[in-house]
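Hey L., structure's done. Input below.
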Amino acid sequence: MARKVRFGVLGVAKIAVEKVIPAMRAGERCEVTAIASRDEGRAKASAASLGLPKAYGSYEALLDDPDVDAIYNPLPNHLHRAWTIAAAERGKHVLCEKPIGMSAAEAAEIIAVRDRTGVKIQEAFMVRTHPQWLRAMDLCRSGRLGDVRSYMGYFSYHNDDPANIRNIAEAGGGALMDIGCYLLTTSRMIFGEEPRRVMGLAERDPAAAVDTLTSMILDFPSGHAIATCSTRMVPYQRIHVFGTRGRVEIEIPFNAPNDRPCRVWFDPAGDLAGRGIETIDLDTCDQYRIQGDAFAGAVLDGTDVVYPLELSLSNMRWIEAVFRSAESGRWEASRRA
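Output:
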């Protein structure tokens, strides 16, 4: 059996401790060997509860560990750039949580470091490898929908805690950076092309200054996408893709369950009563295990990562365009500079 990629984890973020680390430990091509926190006690407690052999009281110490091949970076958004670059400079491959940075400029800087150091760096959009998204993409490309013309997406949850990192502007909080980025990347994935322009609307918390309700219209060469994200609404998520002859619906597109099959609905006829809809059950799986193994595979096999940083850079540019449009009240295009 091929050697596994040995991951170290920066920080004890909830997503890492509760979801990603357990999933990656069950992977075929990756293992988690170390975790670090600025609070050594928290690192040791997390390592003990997860069964990890090493715990460090600083991020630097973990990066200096010669037995760590790659880093998983789930730190707050404003720390993604600095610690991803620090890891790459030490020869570590990096799987970094979304968004890749605070701006397109930061994404471009990370690309330059990747090219100079030769390590693998990927933004952790697990939707890129989940079977339900691959199946939806296959349906869209198969011609069974006819021409794909429209994407409609919604993603929300409720969090009004002012101390939560998602409600702190300086840390990169807000709905668009946290969850709206998924709507942008998946709409671009469905159409297989870049938008020409975007129109955005945003409501902001007057005290925290983060966006809490953001909507957007994306004008693609092949059709339109409309999407809304919110951090102050009832928890919900759904994706619809409409073609000239059929449609696809993804039931739980982003927080895909790992304890039961996921469902995709294919409607080939458009019967308003729902007659003729095909329910496609995807085998139970863990999207974080799949993501980890795919990234580790790119490292071990010397192949390209499934979601290159150039696409991450484009996504950051569109995030910025949505915010500009929300301020200007006009259509905005992606800015290359």
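The mean pLDDT is 97. Residues 309-328 form the longest helix (20 residues).

-- N.
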